[in-house]
Write a structure and sequence with these properties.
heterodimer; A: Transferase(Phosphotransferase), domain 1; six-stranded antiparallel β-sheet; three-stranded antiparallel β-sheet; 67% helix; B: 183 residues; mainly alpha; flat
Chain lengths: 785, 183
């Protein structure tokens, strides 16, 4: 029954559509002035028309197809397949339907899963893949991989597999439903990794690892399913085809970059998926989420973007647990380049095991900072340092207070003996109590890790973290002790590279000392010096400079000119001046440091560093002749102290080489650069970015010396290293490429020169922008050729 | 689920709808069993082939082409609704912990259209505007083009276009309203 109202809504709707979109709203309001409700309805309809949802018709057609297929699936219920009778549909995948079935000969009451190829999917290639899965599973026998019992073809010639029926939940649901702890989740991942490793050892790559393919049974046993798109590594007969069909069925959520760009699949592909799985189980989200990205953007992100740190994504409660080792382990599994991930799934499992056991993890092995960190962590000296600082403090306070009490007691003896004695006794008892509590605190910090559980390599960082939580409560009435502990912990955290934690503690120490000792005290200066050091490491040079200067003023006023702490602050300030290119001020400060008596014998590496830095300052000021003997002296001291293969020796050699090049003594420069690089290659990762910097300077010297043929391999190597270190094009790389182009040009190899210039131009355009002078310069240069 | 039980659900069984229904089911099965990897089964193709087959069997179709199309669309609508109801029942009563779940490749149910809601709204539309609901049925379930729909209903193509446009917007608002009512 068409009502007038229904007709009117349609009339206004269609009329509005003939108008300019901008004026539709006004038109509807105007023509329905008498009936605002009707106007609203029309406006709703108009906005629904612009809805991004797919057309009703299109969606229906898809649903129709799905429904018709599903009729076929259900038609099999009750059918006999081999020895089994199908009882139910369990689920369906891209190419097959999985049914629940029971053995029909009454011999066993065994439930199985029967996977039957879908009708319409029985092309020659897909049947081959189905056979591939059967073959694959037949070769695998592992408690965490769903077992294959049988296989064959149905009466209507469809291939099928009979598999172990698994009563379980997808791994992500299992973890969440049971609210498993981080270590319980990691244990599951380790068992899955072991199953994947078993497959890898049998030359099978699963390629489609995701929670819905990993079910966990009631008794906590994970089971790997669906080797439908698995690849047998030695089999390269139908690789292209498999890749094509795979793409139709694969969701990109767990796909590795090489799967998206169609590069070769290796065991590393499964390691990546395990990385995504671990990320998801610990944080609740995947490194790249489909919900925030379109499929295209998601695929792009997987190939291009760095994944976030799991600890940055996780909720507050477990952030601290993830920070550090787990972040590193997961990110190592998620590297873009398959060869930079864990080589095997087993290694991932091992590293998780090491993490759970509190041992150093392999994921850090390739980063320099990590090595240093682990060194500190393992090094008991750090523990002793905290212990020593705090113990001496406790003893100090105790001694000082006791003396005061004794003094007061003796005074009192002279006058009101009895009364004073009881007061003094009380005070002494109180002091003793405080001291005992402080040492209890220390004991608790140092003894907190259970040596039976963690072994010898328990981690200082964990210990510090738990200690941090107690400090304030335990030392509420002893602010001096609290500030000392905060300072010590800040320094240790800084040494470990954990800057935010370091800042927390140093700030607290500074704040307490301002209240207790006052602004211009040596105690506050000490905290400011340490804060300045931290700011310097965090490249906040202005702040570092201000803090060093403030600490220096107090220390110069109160300390002996030869005092070590005073020299340290001067050293720090000199470094800031140098970094900020205030070379005159830097020179003065370095020279003041060197004024300290006995420095060369007491602290030879500090001494070598200081004269090296002074020499570089002079080199920057163009005073090469003054710099030369200082560099030589630094090298001499370093050779004496560290031997010929030390990294610092290489630094000295490189500095001398650069000075020689500036002095146009190119032979000597080349010789020193060569030695420096040779040492660095043994002491650092051969692709360490510092080596690229030295090679860049070396190449520059060779070009200046017009030794173009020699410059070519040096510069190519530098560019190669840069490429391995910077994922994004880097302006510095473009400088090296320009130098290479110049060398080619000078050799008359014009085509290669232009090619290099063009590469450099595109890098500068990306890194610096089109308007940058360096970019413009290259554009002009290329335009004039 | 048998054909008999599906037929029982039809409120007004008509012989032509039933025979078309059977024919469509049989056709669908044959389509599926063909060896083809690019199988995209479209209701349109089904409807056309069913029509040709029925015409051949009887020498001449017992009903007009227009009536046939209308019946075919209705039959497909019933097949789909029946499927959706079954699935819905499974979803509601179904155990979340199923044996093996490999359904990620299918269009996610929440992303696709809620068929049952559409079905109900179409019934409501039919009460207000019978022609418009037939247009939706023919276009959406029968897969007919604008021109075919106009031909079947004996109206102009511009009428079909206007009604189809309006009906899509209206169904969207109705279904969206249904969604928010649930909250």
């Amino acid at each position: 029954m068409k009502t007038d109202r229904w007709r009117r809504i349609q009339r206004v709707y269609h009329e509005a559509l003939t108008r300019n979109p901008g004026t539709r709203h006004a038109y509807v309001a105007e023509s329905c002035r008498d009936d605002p409700e009707l106007a609203d309805e029309v406006l709703d309809l108009l906005s629904a028309r612009n809805d991004a949802a797919p057309l009703v018709g299109d969606t229906l057609r898809n649903t129709a197809q799905e429904a018709l297929e599903s009729f076929d699936h259900h038609a099999r219920v009750g059918q006999q397949v081999g020895h089994y009778r199908i009882t139910d549909v369990i689920g369906e995948g891209g190419m097959a339907v999985v049914y629940r079935a029971i053995r029909d000969d009454d011999q066993f009451d065994q439930q199985v899963a029967v996977k039957i190829l879908k009708k319409g999917m029985d092309s020659v290639q897909i049947i081959e893949r189905f056979r591939n899965e059967r073959q694959t599973l037949a070769n695998l026998s592992h408690p965490n991989i769903a077992r294959l019992f049988d296989g064959g073809t149905t009466e209507d010639d469809m291939p099928y597999l009979v598999m172990e029926a698994i009563d379980g939940q997808p791994i992500d649901q299992f973890c969440d439903d049971r609210q498993l702890s981080v270590s319980q989740r990691l244990n599951l991942v380790m068992r899955v990794s072991a199953a994947v490793h078993h497959a890898h050892q049998n030359l099978v790559v699963h390629r489609d690892l995701k929670p819905s393919n990993i079910l966990v049974t009631d008794n906590g046993q994970p089971k790997l399913l669906d080797f439908g798109i698995a690849k047998i590594l030695t089999d390269n007969t139908s690789t292209t085809h498999v890749t094509q069909t795979t793409q139709r069925f694969m969701t990109p959520d767990y796909a590795a970059p090489e799967q998206i760009v169609g590069q070769p699949i290796t065991t590393g592909t499964d390691v990546y998926a395990l990385g995504v799985l671990t990320f998801q189980l610990l944080t609740g989200s995947r490194p790249f989420e489909r919900s925030t990205l379109s499929q295209h953007d998601l695929e792009n992100a997987i190939v291009e973007n760095d994944p976030p740190k799991p600890s940055d994504v996780a909720n507050e409660r477990i952030r601290r647990t993830l920070r550090g080792d787990l972040d590193h382990i997961i990110l190592k599994a998620l590297r873009k380049e398959p060869h930079r991930r864990y080589t095997t799934a087993d290694q991932l499992a091992d590293d998780l095991q090491r993490y759970l056991a509190g041992l150093p993890v392999l994921a850090h092995k390739d980063t320099f900072r990590y090595r240093a960190t682990k060194y500190f962590r393992r090094n008991k000296v750090v523990v002793s340092a905290i212990a020593a600082v705090t113990l001496s403090l406790v003893v100090g306070i105790f001694a000082a207070r006791s003396q005061a009490i004794r003094a007061r007691t003796s005074e009192a003896n002279a006058t009101r003996l009895a009364a004073a004695e009881s007061v003094a006794k009380k005070e002494a008892q109180q002091e003793a109590l405080k001291a005992r509590r402080t040492s209890d605190f220390l004991k608790r910090v140092l003894l907190s890790p259970d040596p039976y559980r963690y072994g010898k390599n328990y981690r200082i960082l964990d210990l510090l973290q738990s200690a941090s939580e107690w400090i304030d409560d335990e030392t509420a009435d002893l602010p001096e002790v609290a500030s000392e502990i905060h300072l010590a912990m800040g320094i240790v955290y800084r040494g470990l590279g954990e800057y935010p934690d370091a800042l927390d503690h140093l700030d607290k120490a500074h704040e307490i000392r301002m209240q207790v000792f006052g602004d211009s005290s040596l105690e506050v200066a000490e905290a400011e010096h340490e804060l300045a050091d931290l700011a310097y490491r965090e490249r906040q040079y202005d702040r570092a400079g201000e803090l060093f200067e403030k600490a220096l003023r107090v220390r110069e006023k109160h300390l002996d000119p030869d005092d070590l702490q005073l020299a340290a602050t001067r050293q720090g300030l000199a470094g800031i001046h140098f970094t900020q290119k205030a070379f005159g001020k830097a020179e003065e400060m370095f020279r003041r440091v060197l004024e300290r008596q006995g420095m060369r014998s007491e602290d030879p590496s500090g001494y070598a560093r200081t004269i090296n830095n002074l020499a570089t300052t002079l080199r920057e000021l163009g005073r090469y002749d003054e710099a030369e003997p200082l560099y030589d002296e630094a090298l001499r001291v370093r050779l004496e102290n560290h031997g010929p293969d030390h990294y610092n020796v290489a630094v000295s050699l490189a500095n001398i080489a650069t000075l020689r090049a500036l002095q146009k003594r190119y032979d000597a420069a080349a010789e020193h650069y060569t030695s420096a690089v040779a040492i660095m290659e043994t002491q650092l990762d051969p692709d360490h970015p510092t080596i690229a910097i030295v090679l860049h300077k070396f190449g520059n010297a060779l070009v200046e010396a017009q030794r173009f043929n020699e410059a070519l391999p040096v510069l190519h190597r530098a560019i190669d290293i840069e490429g391995k270190n910077f994922r994004e094009p880097h302006a510095q790389t473009a400088d090296i490429i320009c130098l290479l182009a110049k060398a080619y040009d000078a050799l008359g190899r014009t085509d290669e020169a232009i090619k290099q210039y063009e590469t450099a131009l595109s890098i500068r355009r990306d890194a610096l922008g089109l308007d940058h002078a360096d970019t413009q310069e290259l554009m002009d240069l290329l335009a004039n050729r | 689920m048998t054909i008999q039980s599906m037929q029982r659900q039809m409120t007004e069984p008509s012989t032509s709808v039933e025979s078309i229904y059977d024919e469509l089911r049989a056709l669908a099965a044959r389509y599926m069993s063909r060896e083809r990897t690019d199988h995209t089964l479209q209701p349109t193709a089904l409807v056309h082939e069913a029509y040709l087959r029925l015409a051949k069997v009887d020498g001449a179709p017992s009903t007009s082409r227009a009536a046939f199309m209308a019946c075919a669309a209705t039959a497909i609508r019933r097949i789909l609704i029946d499927h959706a109801k079954k699935r819905d029942a499974l979803k509601r009563g179904g155990d979340r912990r199923r044996l093996m779940i490999e359904t990620e490749h299918l269009p996610a149910p929440e992303a696709s259209l809620d068929l049952l809601a559409l079905h109900e709204q179409l019934d409501q539309l039919e009460r207000m505007d019978r022609r418009m609901s037939r247009i939706v049925e023919l276009r959406a379930f029968g897969g007919l083009t604008i021109a075919e729909t106009a031909d079947v209903l004996d109206v102009s193509t511009s009428t079909v276009e206007r009604d189809w446009d309006f009906a899509c917007s209206w169904l969207r608002t109705q279904i969206a309203r249904g969604d928010s009512d649930e909250d």
